[in-house]
């Protein structure tokens, strides 16, 4: 997997995305705002969990990229 930061949604296919697993969900995608429109982006990764805090811990440990609301990770962003 690549190490550079993704600059556009399509770049995510080159990264290990940390996936929030919903029961009986057969597919993995993130919905991102591209311009003014929500856009579905199919993602993949080596790790999945059904707990958002677990995903945050993995991201902080450098295991991959998460898709979470800013308010949910405000403290981590403020700490750098």
From TrEMBL:
Superkingdom of the organism of origin: Bacteria
Entry-linked Pfam families: LysR_substrate (PF03466)
SUPFAM superfamilies for the chain: Periplasmic binding protein-like II
LysR substrate-binding domain boundaries: 4-80
InterPro entries named among the record's database cross-references: LysR_subst-bd (IPR005119)
Keywords tagged on the record: Plasmid
Name assigned to this protein: LysR substrate-binding domain-containing protein
Species the sequence originates in: Roseovarius pelagicus
């Amino acid at each position: 997997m690549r190490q550079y930061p993704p600059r556009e949604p399509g770049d995510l296919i080159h990264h290990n995305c940390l996936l929030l697993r919903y029961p009986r969900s057969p597919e993995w995608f993130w919905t991102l705002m591209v311009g003014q429109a929500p856009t579905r982006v199919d993602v993949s990764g080596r790790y999945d969990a059904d707990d958002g805090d677990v995903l945050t811990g993995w991201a902080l440990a450098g295991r991959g990229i998460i898709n979470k609301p800013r308010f949910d990770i405000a403290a981590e962003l403020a700490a750098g």
